[in-house]
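Any chance you could type out some protein's one-letter sequence along with its backbone structure tokens so I can compare the two?
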Amino acid sequence: MRFHHASMTVSDLPAAMEFFRAAFGFAPDFVEEEMGADIARMAGHPGLLCAFTQMRAPGMDLVLELIAFTHPDGPPPADPLPWRPGAGHVCFHVDDLETTLTTCRTAGATVLGEVIAFPGGRCCYIRTPGDAFVELEWMAPAS
């Protein structure tokens, strides 16, 4: 068995794709504009549709999937809280937390709370355009 991808549900696929490109250098391997019957059957939810992409960034083994679901009854509202059951995030270790935060803010992200310190590092949660959650973490170099 091997890890293939991490998936994040987003409310706006083009906005999320642009954020991950601008902030972290991700580029799509492919984009599926409209997946219908298969996703409805897979999720067990008749009428469900989705658009999604799988993206890669230079120097990273991580395949990042961004997926936007729609339904004839309308999509559920985005959840503004990353700690709710079913919500998730990806975490990126970064070399310079302040520079990365500036890049992410310029690309449209907002910091959810505040940057915190812990023994050996600092981290924070951000919310991206398209309503995905990302943790940024800086670890002190080993002595």
Observations:
- The chain has one domain: 6-74+84-139.
- The longest strand covers residues 27-35.
- The CA atoms of residues 21 and 27 lie 6 Å apart.
